[in-house]
Amino acid sequence: MQKRPLITVKKAPKPVRIKLKPASGPGSAPSAVSIPSASELPSSGRSLQPNFKTKLPHESLAFALFGAAQAVAQVKAGTALPQALAKIFEHSDPSPQARGAIQAIAYRAMRQLGRAETLLGMMTSKAPDPALLHGLLCCALSLLCNPSETDGGLPYDDFTVVDQAVTAAAAHPDIAHAKGMVNAVLRRFLRERIALMQTAQLQPVAAWNYPQWWIDAVKSAYPHDWQAILVAGNSAPPLTLRVNLRRTTVPEYLQTLTQAGIAAQPIGSSAVRLDKPLPVAQIPGFADGMASVQDAAAQLAATLLDVSDGMRVLDACAAPGGKTGHLLETAVLDLTALDHDARRLVRIEENLQRLQLSATLTVGDASNRQWWDGRQFDRILADVPCTASGIVRRHPDIRWLRRKADTLQLATLSKEILDNLWQMLRPNGKLLFVTCSLWPQESEAQAAAFAMRNQATRLPAPGQLLPTVGKEDDHDGLFYALFQKTSSQ
Ligand SMILES: C[S@@+](CC[C@H](N)C(=O)[O-])C[C@H]1O[C@@H](n2cnc3c(N)ncnc32)[C@H](O)[C@@H]1O
Questions:
Q1: DSSP designation for 33
Q2: Fewer CB near the terminus (10 Å): N or C of the chain?
Q3: Would you kindly state where each structural domain of the chain is located, as residue ranges?
Q4: Is 139 annotated as a binding residue?
Q5: Which residue CA neighbors atom 19 of ligand 1 most closely?
Q6: End-to-end CA, the chain
């Protein structure tokens, strides 16, 4: 097998050599490729020069790659992608177009991280250091692997991607020493793309772009549907709106969209799906509360809870208030929106202001009674914290941030929350248990055990909704179980 030359990389004060691994032939078995975890990445996402501001032009692909690479490095160090992007935007204040490009590349890189890291493992002898360099290579590879895949493809040709990745590397003092290595790795990928991709695809992590434990968990819970579930989680989500039926009707709102030149389809009693996602600022009536962004499966909660005017309702894990708003659009309620995170409660307030609706906002822990005034509720919505494994198409970083042990920990917390809330429900009252999880320990097993412990009557509800992509049905993976107290409980 032909040996590749070592690439010499300049790095002050002493030069470092980064080895490129020799190529493997198309039919050869994949070598054991280890995916570096955050702790294995030497600088764990921290920039050596955290206040460095790049002078790259905002309209360049190099600038977008640089921003996305920072985001990937931060996710590898444990920060959620939206928070990582928010920090990067605050620091570099990109133009709206550059912001869109950074976001698109970072999300794409998250959906292809398993494959990009496998390819890197095949082409380099150790994890590229620092994490920013690793992030840059992953972002560039995600643009070079099947450019037409998933989010419609990004409009960059191969050599532009390589050239701009090298420019991005050269522009940052932490990684400028490695620009030759970036060039060598990406050019090698282009030369040997078919063979490298074929070999990488033999590894499930690269083929599916999920951690191995996640693939195993989906397979074990859904032996017939596991592939469709994993594929759905890698698709770009649609933009689904909830029409505020207090203010307008679905046909009227569709007409408003048509007048604005926006194509959309009605998909339920209050849901409308746009043919092409748009920034919320461009959605007619969004700022005035005519419509809100909410997945079609999440829109089932308000109807299932069966609220009517005058009821006393608890939305127990309420932030950012998507379902709170829907409940208040459905009926005139005395609604308490509870969340343990005061900062997230602010987001409910903002949402309700936009919708011109109001609720009692309370900071408190749903697993205890310290915040409760002792008056029972007619209805309780328990949209408990969970692994969010059912909404990975919207949050592709989640699969890389979660650990297997999180499921048990979160299931234990939601058990405490459910048992506590049950005491706050009046006789004949209804409690709707919701998760956006795919794991039975958090959803069906939890619901069944809860019903047994509390002698709760289970009413009809959808149960586990698997994430689905398609013209007819297109929604996240949510779980719904509805319980009623008997009159004597
Ligand atoms: C799945 S999200 C809720 C989404 C929300 N219902 C909506 O539709 O927009 C779960 C929420 O539970 C909150 N949470 C987590 N643990 C909690 C606890 N012990 N008590 C109250 N809220 C909690 C989190 O801060 C988070 O906002």
A1: P
A2: N
A3: 7-209, 238-289, 295-484
A4: no
A5: 365
A6: 75
d(CA 289, ligand 1 centre) in Å: 22
Is 436 a known active-site residue?
yes
| Cβ contact 430:464 at 8 Å | no
| Residue 21 annotated as lining a ligand binding site | no
114 marked as part of a ligand binding site: no
Tokens 């550059």, residue located: 98
152-209 pLDDT, tens digit per residue, is 556 789 999 999 999 999 999 989 999 999 999 999 999 999 999 999 999 999 999 9
Question: Amino acid identity, residue 60?
Answer: S
Neighbours of 374 (CB within 10 A): 6
Under CATH, which number does the domain 238-289 receive? Answer: 3.30.70.1170
47 lines ligand 1 (CB under 6 A): no
- Euclidean distance between CA atoms 342 and 138, whole angstroms: 36
Summarize pLDDT for 369-407 with one digit per residue, the tens: 999 999 999 999 999 999 999 999 999 999 999 999 999
User: Residue 480: enclosing H or E segment and its boundaries?
Assistant: strand 479-484
**Would you tell me how many other CB atoms lie within 10 Å of the CB of residue 214?**
26
Tokens of 479: 């779980």
Cα–Cα distance for residue pair 233/9, rounded to 1 Å: 38
Question: Which value, in Å, is the radius of gyration of the alpha carbons in the chain?
Answer: 25
Pocket test for ligand 1, best of 327, 329, 339 (most atoms within 8 A of CB): 339
227 CB-near residues (< 8 Å, 6+ apart): none
Could you count the other beta carbons within 10 Å of the beta carbon of residue 35?
19
Angle at which helices 179-191 and 131-144 cross, to 10°: 30
CATH assignment, 7-209: 1.10.940.10
ipTM of the complex: 0.99
In degrees rounded to 5, what are phi and psi of residue 287?
-60, -30
Whole-number Cα distances in Å, 453 to 434, 483, 488, 489: 18, 12, 16, 13
Contacts of 321 (CB under 8 A, 6+ apart): 337, 347, 348, 351, 352
The one catalytic residue in 138, 145, 386, 436 is 436
| CA 381 – ligand 1 centroid, Å | 11
Q: Which helix (H) or strand (E) holds 459?
A: strand 457-464
The partner residues of 335 in beta bridges, in order of sequence, read 313
Which CATH code for domain 295-484?
3.40.50.150
323 is in an annotated binding site: yes
Our mutation pick for probing the ligand 1 site, out of 242, 305, 317, counting the most ligand atoms within 8 A of Cβ, is: 317
